Amino acid sequence: DAPLAPVESPDHLTAKMFKSQLALLKKKYGRRKTIDPYLEAPCLAALSFYPELKDVRIIFERSAIDFTMQTQPKLDFLLLEKSARAYCITVNTNCGARKGVNLRELSFNALTGWIGHELAHIADYENLSASGIVGYGTAYLFDEPRRIIERRTDLIAIQHGLGYPLLEGVQFLMDSKTADAEYKKGLIDHYLSPEEIVGEIKKRVRKPVLEAGIIEKRRQ
Question: What is the rounded CA–CA span in Å between residue 214 and residue 168?
Answer without folding.
Answer: 9
